[in-house]
Amino acid sequence: MQPRKLSGQLLHELGSKIVSGVLESGQVLPSVEALSEMNGVSRTVTREALKALSAFGLVESQPKVGTTVCAREEWQWWNRDVLQWSVDAVPNQHFLLQLVEVRRVIEPAAVALAANKGTAEDFALIQDAFCRLSASLDSDENWAKADYEFHDSIIAAAHNELMLSLIRVMRDALLYSRKTTIPILKETREQSQASALAQHKAVMDAVCSRDEERAHEMMLELLDGVTVLIENREHGGKAHGHSSRQIQK
């Protein structure tokens, strides 16, 4: 196997263990020689993997100390690999809830900007995305993808490149979040995909009618629903004191 592929495999293995907490912050990793022997790879492969982990902020190397796992606040959380390892970690509810908190900061502001700055072409793209969402009710995979594309079309209409880039970096994590909440959405009596679809339509209508305040309000309501669903995932789909108005993204 090529060294590049081997270093990628070792990177994935070590990165996953760090993000999941198997390797804890402050822990000193085995030496390059020991890691190489443990994983059956060359020292060059091991050094490449450690170099990548260092670039991600997951580890740091110091003379006479060795390679140490960094504190979580030093990690490059927007790195795609770090995001994916966070998604794959079990349990990952804390990460998914933090993801919603980030969305609550970005998306309500984005829909208000979209209502203000969006063009007729932007609104047509949002409406097309909503039609695809409406047609995806019978497929969890298609629903997750269409839901992401609906939100992406609205953020694109805000014409803020930094905002759009940030959301797109999180694409895989956002898709995963949607897939994990769909089963709860179907099982919870107070919530359904039909009512979720109505909430999406309310956001779309507010944006396309250039009602910034209502667009902001409707998006917050959707994201409140995401929080409810992620929390309910840990309790077999049973609601815990949250309003039934709070519907999946």
From TrEMBL:
Coiled coil: none annotated. InterPro entries: GntR_C, TF_FadR/GntR_C, Tscrpt_reg_HTH_GntR, WH-like_DNA-bd_sf, WH_DNA-bd_sf. PROSITE patterns: HTH_GNTR. Residues 4-72 form the HTH gntR-type domain. The keyword Transcription applies. Pfam families: FCD, GntR. It comes from the Bacteria. SMART domains: FCD, HTH_GNTR. SUPFAM superfamilies: GntR ligand-binding domain-like (SSF48008), Winged helix' DNA-binding domain (SSF46785). GO terms for molecular function: DNA binding; DNA-binding transcription factor activity. Keywords: DNA-binding, Transcription, Transcription regulation. This is FadR family transcriptional regulator. The lineage of its organism: Bacteria, Bacillati, Bacillota, Bacilli, Bacillales.
